[in-house]
């Protein structure tokens, strides 16, 4: 488990030390199974101006640049794999056991892993079961807990740089459709429904104009748990 990824990094802004402190406390409270997490100094979109034609805000620009730079360094360092986290990632107490089980079931040909994320448009094109507890993603986004192998690093780095001016530049919005072109896998529950292992902790978002965000795992609602109202 320790050698699953060549590097583990976590994006964190210098001006938000409380987020890093919470993240560090969280992973210190569990049996962290991978290499030690390296803190990656996030690009601050409040300081670094975006290019002409950028319409997604300074926070999203800083986020995009941070993730580009992480991949750029990994590529230059000739890494074969990397796990990328953000400092609002939340690991529940059972994470170590559950991720070990998930990785034991993932096909050996994986390009990308979404340990946390959000499946989109599952009513039209749902993720595809490939093994017990494993789904192949058709459109899965969010950048708080994802892993890439080298070929996928190169492809995603190029895709993020091929952003079209005056369209959404959010790195996770671009990532979602990209993942369908790669062998991207995500965890599922015993019934084959999406069940992410890493959530996004409650926080004040630097991308969504300071909006408060509650702890969310981004799993779709279970239709069997829906309440029927008769009129």
Gyration radius, rounded: 17 Å
- Total helix count? 5
- Overall geometric form: globular
Helix content: 25-40%
Major sheet characteristics: 8 strands, mixed
- The oligomerization state is single chain
Straight-line distance between termini: 53 Å
State the strand order across the main sheet: 2-1-3-10-5-11-8-7
H/E element sequence:
EHEHEEHEEEEEEHHEEEE
Beta-strand residue percentage? 15-25%
Q: Count every beta strand, where a strand is a DSSP E run of 2 or more residues.
A: 14
Main structural class: alpha+beta
Low-pLDDT windows of residues: 224-231
Mean pLDDT: 92
Give me the secondary-structure topology.
Blueprint: E1 8-12, H1 17-28, E2 38-41, H2 58-76, E3 81-86, E4 89-90, H3 95-105, E5 112-114, E6 118-119, E7 128-131, E8 134-136, E9 140-141, E10 145-149, H4 150-161, H5 171-179, E11 184-187, E12 199-200, E13 203-204, E14 212-213
Task: Provide structural commentary.
This protein is α+β, with helices and mostly antiparallel strands. The protein has five helices and 14 strands. The protein has helices spanning 17-28, 58-76, 95-105, 150-161, 171-179; strands at residues 8-12, 38-41, 81-86, 89-90, 112-114, 118-119, 128-131, 134-136, 140-141, 145-149, 184-187, 199-200, 203-204, 212-213. It has an eight-stranded mixed β-sheet, with helices on both faces. The chain has a two-stranded antiparallel ribbon with strand order 4-12. The longest helix is centred in the N-terminal third of the chain and has 19 residues, at 58-76. The protein is globular. Mean pLDDT is 92; it is low at 224-231.
